[in-house]
Fold this sequence. Notes:
Elements: E1 2-6, H1 11-16, E2 20-24, E3 29-31, H2 33-37, E4 44-48, E5 55-57, E6 67-71, H3 74-84, E7 90-93, H4 99-104, E8 110-112, E9 129-135, H5 143-153, E10 158-161, H6 166-174, E11 176-180, H7 190-197, E12 201-205, H8 210-213, E13 221-223, H9 226-238, H10 240-257, H11 260-271, H12 281-297, H13 305-313, H14 319-332, H15 334-346, H16 354-366, H17 370-383, H18 395-408, H19 429-439, H20 444-453, H21 461-474, H22 479-491, H23 495-511, H24 515-525, H25 530-542
Parallel strand pairs: 1-2, 1-4, 3-5, 4-6, 6-7, 7-8, 9-10, 9-11, 11-12, 12-13
Amino acid sequence: MNIACVHLGLAQALADRGHAVLDLRPPAGIVRIGPLLGDFVPDLFIQQETLGPRTLIKDLPDLDCPRIFWSIDTHLNSFWHQYYARLFDLFCTTQKHWLAWFARRGVTPGVWMPWYGVRRERASWDARKQGMAFVGRLTAERPVRTWFVDELCGLGEVRVRQDLGFAAMLDMYDESRLVPNESIFGEVNFRLFEAASCGCAVLNPYIPGLEELFEPGEEVAVYRDGAELADWVARLQGDDLLARSMGLRAWERVRREHLAEHRAVALLDASAGLARCGASGPEADVAWWLTVLHLWEAGRLLMSADAMAAALQALSVTDEVLAALLRVRATIGRNEFMRLAVPVIETKQYEGCPEVNLAGSMGALRHGDPAMARLFFQRHRRHVAPAAPDPGRTPLSICLAWARELQRIGRSFRPGFVFDPATHLPQSALECLVLAGEHAPGELDVYRDIARILATESGWDGLRIQALSHLSLHDRRDWRLGLELGLADCRAFRVRQGLEEILLARDEARRQGQSGRFERFLAARDGSGRIRARLEDDFSATNPPS
């Protein structure tokens, strides 16, 4: 085949299989693919997401061949990928558990296409340095990663490096035995494959789909919290044969299944018989401008609000376009917003669309009109959620009502989007709660809902700890809060603080005669049993037998 690629790391692997490959590397920003192709007529087109500055291709519908988009940082860019992916015939993602999320938003077909390792000779184990190695950027924006490194430092010697080039990082892994890995939002990341490619014993958080890539406990050590991480570090440091064999098995698995040639074959298999289902015509225009809008809202594209409003106004009106227009006009000013919002209410336009009602409600709050904000929620309640309670009449109560509704319909948060309540209108439950906190600082219901919404989600541990800490300070007798805070601390690698909170919660439960309930609750949440084992070890150390 003739295959045209944009920023595809597998271009050489496709060429090695006998295909004619045009390997394009256009600059960041908005580009047209037609002029870049020249006389090359592709049978297949593949674009891989680039990290950092983005390349957006405006004329994708003009391509007369199947189109594939490979999302690499799905966990951080789903908020705009869900629109850009509509312009392709196949959506691939490195994160298996995100496929269902995209399918619910109409992005099909989708294929899991994990990242891959490198073919590398395995360095001598005996020549490797003792201790652990970690490569990753430590910033104030990611406190959990800093806590992760602090926890490792308490477990033994750790070499920490930031901003290493790719070759230097692999050289460092060649010198290392144990490589603990951490992920931002529960994603299968590059570091797993890179460290495994070098034959290291990798300690990796449990992530859906990981067991299909590497055998837990045999090829990769898997942990769910800081206590289980500490247990694995102790085992691997104390059993050099186990660490060596785990690294060897991971290295062999990479060479057997996780190299560029394997992913190239998988991409070609996925493209076989691929139906042309990408958006075209007016639908493609909507998909394009919604992509641009979300990147503009995130501050990643420069454009005036007036220009964005004009572009959206020129599109066929759909529920998504109307919601987008309401948000942009709310950004421009009160008069612009009201000139659109009032007719929407009067003509009952898209009354049953949550996106339209949310945009109208939040835009009204932006401009100091809680009565109109309530009207938009009541539209949603009447057509979508008749069982929802009355939203009340204050900005706080309306934000809380929307937060609960958005969680119910599966729109809890937007990972990767840095929400600023002074600039953006909320589009998720968490963002509604952040705005609620702006209207009523210190309101306990806001903190309760934040803690509840984030209870089972990866990547939000720091924020959840803040919410639980605030709640716990206001009610020290609620041992459930103390236990939740302790478990959240352990999950975020603040194990010592977590154990202290859990012990305090256990003491409070005993005072209330609820020891049995406490133990059952803890057992249900501590799947590995390592937190309970640490509790007993610490209790025995501080209370030696007489």
